[in-house]
């Protein structure tokens, strides 16, 4: 017996290629197939736009496609984005199984799930294995909000683009909406014959694998970097030289460059003996994880499964090369190489390797362009990234670890952190980028950064006074909290 749930078929404005006709819009599951295994084309050719599974299989199946949730007879409640996974979990035991009283059989299943899933979905699966339901109401936006979001997309190439407002107008789906719009705007969906169902599912999973309880490294940051990357791709030096393949690679790298970011830095993972640090031998730990997570979602959704294997492998490898370039510890290496090319005027954008290097530099600029945004936007990002630093410092204090530089909220302020970052990291990079692409946008970015730096400098005395007042108040509270009988004479 088979139960079938019919989904609406997406309208197609072009002929469907034969190699995807039998699988477009359909996923089939049976008790003998794996969750993401290849379905039988003979079955799917008769049921386009359907999701089906064997109703006799008592395993709870949870299928997410086009934001439609399907449950088996056993079923379970929809999953929700988890809270910050590191505020309640000891990092020194994070790589081990969560203690939840599960049986040995469950332990093996949970370990296998942990290897395959991101931190976010691992925590979801852990709860599901323990039988803990999670509920979240489904909010639907009205036409006013969606209409305003569409109006904003008409100016997606503006450097003043307010990603925070756009995220609100899209109900927290800024990364999905923005990336899909840009791919369509460049005609990449048609050109690369991307299956819309697979593409949508890929973007949904990408957005969900960002930890939106991170103050900074979340899906809104990924959307902001993607929008900045689009602005750079529109620059004359790039727009007249880059191929469609380069553009597709650049947009995907921007959207996934911080995928499954835990909200702490690499030194923290190393000193807490996290399994990722061991896996990647303490080298570009987070960037390697972002890359491998992106590749995992590409393969899970089969987004490029219709391409020849060597082409999809090359795309995965070059995607990794772009994401690994965002490692801030290698900043000077890339900057020196970029400066040498500019000094010798040796960049030739008809050369594929040179175009790829420029894409790396563009992604690096997009990743740390917050100081170059208008003050209203830049200030918000500065406060968010500093709060993430401070939250890491709080965890380090809690576990009696040495507090990382810039992570102690009692000795640092937003202003001094931002001034140091602009002086030693942002200004050298964007100065060289302006040499490469001396345009109005480059001058605008440098102008904003100069004004923002001056603004933080003007706020320094005020922030220092507030910090001292807070520290004094905290000391007073601690003093009052000590019972009189316990004070030493």
Structural features, described:
- This protein starts with a strand and ends in a 9-residue tail after the last helix.
- It is built from 21 helices and 5 strands.
- By secondary structure, it is mainly alpha-helical.
- The strands form 2 sheets. Strands 1-3-2 form a 3-stranded mixed β-sheet, with no helix packed on it. Strands 4-5 form a two-stranded antiparallel sheet.
- 56% of the residues lie in helices and 4% in strands.
Keywords:
two-stranded antiparallel ribbon, 489 residues, mainly alpha, globular, 4% strand, single chain, disordered C terminus, disordered N terminus, three-stranded mixed sheet, 21 helices, 56% helix
The major beta sheet can be summarized as: 3 strands, mixed
Question: In terms of structural class, how would the helical and strand content be classed?
Answer: mainly alpha
Give the CA-CA distance, first to last residue.
Answer: 81 Å
Number of helices: 21
Regions with little confidence, pLDDT below 50 for 5+ residues:
1-106, 109-115, 134-139, 477-489
- Strand line-up in the sheet with most strands: 1-3-2
Beta-strand level of the residues, as a percent range? under 5%
* SSE succession: EHEHEEEHHHHHHHHHHHHHHHHHHH
How many extended strands?
Answer: 5
**Gyration radius, rounded:** 24 Å
**Mean of all residue-level pLDDT scores:** 78
Estimate percent helicity.
55-70%
The 3D shape can be described as: globular
């Amino acid at each position: 017996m088979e139960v079938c749930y019919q989904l609406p078929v997406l309208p197609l404005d072009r002929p469907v290629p034969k190699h995807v006709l039998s699988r477009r819009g359909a996923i089939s599951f049976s008790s003998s197939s794996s969750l993401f295994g290849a379905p039988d084309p003979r079955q799917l050719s008769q049921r386009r736009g359907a999701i089906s599974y064997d109703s006799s299989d008592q395993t709870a199946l949870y299928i997410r496609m086009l934001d439609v949730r399907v449950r088996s007879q056993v079923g379970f409640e929809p999953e929700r984005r988890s809270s910050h996974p590191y505020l309640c979990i000891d990092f020194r035991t994070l790589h081990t199984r969560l203690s939840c009283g599960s049986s040995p059989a469950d332990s093996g299943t949970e370990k296998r799930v942990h290897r395959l899933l991101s931190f976010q979905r691992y925590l979801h699966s852990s709860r599901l294995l323990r039988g803990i339901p999670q509920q979240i109401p489904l909010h639907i936006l009205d036409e006013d909000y969606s209409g305003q979001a569409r109006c904003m997309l008409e100016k997606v190439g503006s450097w003043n683009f307010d990603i925070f407002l756009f995220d609100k107008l899209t109900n927290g789906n800024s990364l999905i909406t923005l990336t899909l719009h840009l791919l369509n705007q460049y005609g990449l969906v048609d050109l690369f014959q991307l299956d819309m169902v697979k593409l949508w599912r890929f973007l949904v999973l990408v957005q969900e694998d960002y930890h939106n309880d991170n103050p900074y490294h979340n899906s809104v940051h990924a959307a902001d970097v993607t929008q900045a990357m689009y602005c750079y791709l529109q620059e004359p030096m790039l727009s007249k030289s880059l191929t469609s393949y380069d553009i597709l690679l650049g947009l995907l790298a921007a959207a996934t460059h911080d995928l499954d970011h835990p909200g702490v830095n690499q030194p923290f993972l190393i000193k807490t003996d996290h399994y990722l640090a061991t896996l990647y031998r303490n080298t570009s730990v987070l960037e390697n994880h972002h890359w491998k997570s992106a590749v995992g979602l590409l393969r899970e959704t089969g987004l490029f499964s219709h391409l020849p294997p060597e082409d999809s492998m090359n795309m995965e490898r070059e995607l990794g090369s772009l994401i690994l370039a965002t490692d801030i510890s290698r900043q000077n290496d890339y900057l020196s190489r970029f400066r040498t090319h500019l000094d010798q005027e040796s960049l030739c954008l008809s050369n594929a390797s040179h175009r790829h290097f420029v894409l790396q530099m563009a992604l690096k600029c997009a990743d740390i362009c917050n100081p170059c945004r208008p003050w209203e936007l830049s200030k918000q990002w500065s406060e968010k990234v500093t709060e993430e630093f401070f939250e890491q410092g709080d965890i380090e204090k809690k576990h009696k670890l040495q507090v990382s530089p810039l992570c102690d909220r009692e000795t640092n302020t937003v202003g001094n952190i931002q001034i140091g970052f602009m002086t030693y990291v942002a200004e050298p990079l964007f100065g060289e980028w302006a040499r490469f692409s001396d345009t109005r946008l480059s001058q605008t970015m440098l102008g904003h950064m100069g004004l923002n730096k001056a603004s933080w400098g003007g706020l320094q005395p005020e922030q220092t006074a507030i910090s001292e007042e807070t520290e004094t108040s905290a000391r007073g509270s601690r003093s009052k909290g000590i019972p009189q009988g316990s004070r030493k004479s």
